[in-house]
Amino acid sequence: MHAPFDAKPETTMTEAPQISAGRPQPLGSTVVDGGVNFSVFSEHATRVDLLLFDKCDDPQPSRTIHLHPDKHRSFHFWHCHVAGIGAGQVYAYRMDGPRDPKRSGTRFDHRKVLLDPYARANINSRWNRTLAIGLQDNVETCMRSLVVDLDDYDWEGDQPLRTPMEDTVIYEMHVRGLTASPTSRAASPGTFSAVVEKIPHLKRLGVTAVELLPVFDFDETHVLRNGPDGTPLHNYWGYDPYGFFAPHTGYCTSPHLNTHIAEFRDMVKELHRAGIEVILDVVFNHTSEGNEFGPTISFRGQANEAYYHLWPQDRSHYMDFTGCGNAVNANHPFVAKFIIESLEYWVTEHHVDGFRFDLASELSRGDQGYEMPVPPVLWAIELSKVLAETKIIAEPWDGGGLYQVGRFPGKRWAQWNGPFRDDVRRFVRGDAGVVGDLAKRLGGSEDLFGPQKELPTNSINFVTCHDGFTLNDLVSYDHKHNYANGEADTDGSSENYSWNCGAEGPCDDPEVERLRVRQIKNLLSVLMLSRGVPMLLAGDEFRNSQSGNNNAYCQDNPTSWLDWDQAEKEEETFEFVRRLIALRRRYRTFRAPHFYTGHLNSRQLPDITWHGTRLEQPGWEDTNARVLACTLGGFDGDPDLHLILNMYHLGLDFELPHIRGHRWHRVLDTAQAGPRDLLPAGHEEPHDDHTFHAHGRSVVLLAALSDAKDNPR
Question: Which of 47, 263, 561, 626 has its CA 20 to 30 A from that of 425?
Fold first, then answer.
């Protein structure tokens, strides 16, 4: 134990009658029995002090309660009940104990003021990250936690939506980026409440779920570096959490009034009213405390040896499987409890519908950092009764080289399908010889998920996400342009499978622009007409651009903010996306939660038959092939469909199969200008020829409709 900390005097209320032993469970702060019960975990602490502040911005606590181990400790939990206080109470902790980072990994320091890891809300108005790193006392510049009364809210009958996975269309978005631009015309830009203002747009688009980039409290004050123009660059995406039970303070309109919970719940409730689920992007693989040179915020000062992977040879150093300085030891018994309770809390108390786990493969590592065949925390998530009807989605890799697409532990986990992104990009770009891979992606990636007896609904299909080019930039840039990040353009992936369609960046050439629009439609069509669960990146529906930056994690500015003026300019693209989502909803063929098997329908047509320009000659072995077609036998009321994908630069004639008593009708043709590019139900265009001429770089969908069902034109 180190020497006593140097701080201003604090009043100790150990003998005050309003302080009682309290209970070890639940952890965190709970309004109960005319006061608040506090409980915090620390196995090796020898001293725990609870600091109570009268106001959020008070430099010093009004009183400090020393928790005596004989009265206020049960096994590894320190606890007490304080009568006469309630919601809005500001608090924090100090802890002391052994400081032996090299051998035991412990890093106790009574000079550092610590957040409650289970806090339901935090305040950071006095926070100074630098002063949380050195040896000085940081009580005047620490973050503090707030007591929240979770029962003080009217849900108005809100219930989980439970949209089937096969019917789900995900819209990945950043809470601030959605409305931070003045073009959003939001009343409180960049907040949870501003998301509510954009619900009409989301409902009109037809998505069934929003996937929010991290909304757990994170440190956006941390200056990563300065950009080339001297502008300080901060953590914008939010993949740097410290509060796993607390909505991010920066997304609230009035956090000083303890409105965090109400504002987040209001957003969820209104999204549910619109039929839209809420999926949270959660980061349990690392924390904001970083490596041994980072700040002490909570975990490091309470149970460093439990929360983090430490090098066995020298436990003063952190294993880093995330690229962020540390890695959470997720399969430690208490840390696993912490993760499960956090997830269950967001479901029970905030009605969240699902989670996407960032760098989820890190959660399958054991105490020494090796991959575990049966990771306890991942199976606990899958088998939790509370989480049983939620969506759980893994980013099935981590920063340490563990790649688990198609073999992620468990059966219920959906997984971001990186091969889908890459194969579709390559095919639509016009790369030769990838038709076989493209066929696998269209069918739900059975090659990846079939061996584990999983389903197409285990595949989250995407061509763009927050990490990489936007869809517009994917067809506008051959190379990344990340100089604004201050890393000399060395950051971000260099392997993007992009194509600028003839000019790098913005272009006034109408031919280039027409080709870019067509390529966008091609990429989106393949996405929506593939089995699996499609995911859109926010803004792609109106060609939002990041000026070629494919790693805008530090760009909290117009580079990453959605430009809503662009939405008005790109109405054709928006309408195409809206009608494409409706088309997917119209035909269950594309949403069926099983792989194609060759099963025959009532017209003796297999569920899928592969072709090239000629019937039943798909050209699997043709290294120059840039085309693919397939006939999809309809079931359960769906018509038979014929899909043509021509990524050759010239138009080609494709043979069509004959289906007795039916005529082919054009539904989709990306070579057409809107609104003729995608026709609504009842307005399909008859096509009587035995071939169809597909223009170069186009996607065509035909439906075989009964002659008796033809609508007069």
Answer: 561
Closest CA relative to residue 424, chosen from 645, 653, 703: 645
pLDDT in tens, 524-549: 999 999 999 999 999 999 999 999 99
- Select which of 211, 358, 556, 669 is catalytic: 358
The H-or-E segment that residue 449 falls in is: helix 446-449
Lowest mean pLDDT among 6-15, 281-290, 443-452, 500-509: 6-15
Cα(469)–Cα(492) distance, integer angstroms: 10
Contact 378, 341 (CB under 8 A): no
pLDDT of residue 708: 58
Is the pLDDT at 709 greater than 70, yes or no?
A: no
- Residue 682 CA to its chain's centroid (Å): 37
Q: List CB contacts of 674: < 8 A, sequence separation 6 or more.
A: 572, 575, 576
Q: Rounded to an integer, what distance in angstroms lies between the CA atom of residue 639 and that of residue 681? A: 12
Residue tagged 């430009």 (tokens) = 563
Catalytic residue among 217, 395, 556, 638: 395
Give the span between the Cα atoms of 144 and 125, in whole angstroms.
9
* Confidence check: pLDDT of 7 > 50: no
* 644-656: burial string, b at 16+ Cβ within 10 Å, e else: bbbbbeeebebbb
What is the percentage of the chain residues whose pLDDT exceeds 70?
97
**Beta bridge pairs of residue 82:** 19, 36
DSSP 347-411: HHHH---EEEETTGGGGGB-TTSPBPSS-HHHHHHHH-STTTTSEEEE--B-TTS-B-TTT-SSS
CB 237 within 8 A of CB 216: no
- Tokens for 162? 């439970």
CA atoms within 13 A on the CB side of 348: 13
CB-side exposure of 215: number of CA atoms within 13 Å?
Answer: 34
Q: Cα dihedral angle (399, 403, 409, 410), rounded to 10 degrees?
A: 110
| CA atoms of 97 and 45, how far apart (whole Å) | 5
> Across the strands, what pairs with 328?
308
What CA–CA distance (Å, rounded) separates 460 from 168?
10
Q: What are phi and psi of 556, to 5 degrees?
A: -85, 75
Contact of 400 with 285, CB cutoff 8 Å: no
- CA 99 distance to own-chain centroid: 37
Active site residue 358: yes
What are residue 416's DSSP bridge partners?
A: 460
Beta bridge partners of 705: 663
Query: Residue 11 above 70 pLDDT?
Result: no
pLDDT of residue 16: 52
Name the pLDDT band for 209 (thresholds 50, 70, 90).
very high
Specify whether 508 is catalytic: no
Q: What gap in Å lies between CA 547 and CA 492, rounded to an integer?
A: 14
Please report the DSSP string for 79-90 in residue order.
EEEEET--TT-E
Beta-carbon neighbour count of residue 342 at 10 Å? 18
Tokens of 488: 């000399």
pLDDT at 707: 75
Dihedral, CA of residue 470, residue 476, residue 480 and residue 484, to nearest 10: -80
> Would you give the end-to-end CA distance of the chain in angstroms?
87
The pLDDT score that the predictor gives to residue 15 is 44
What torsion do the CA atoms of 676, 679, 684, 685 make, to the nearest 10 degrees?
A: 10
Provide the mean pLDDT of the chain.
95
DSSP string, 572-593: HHHHHHHHHHHHHHH-GGGT-S
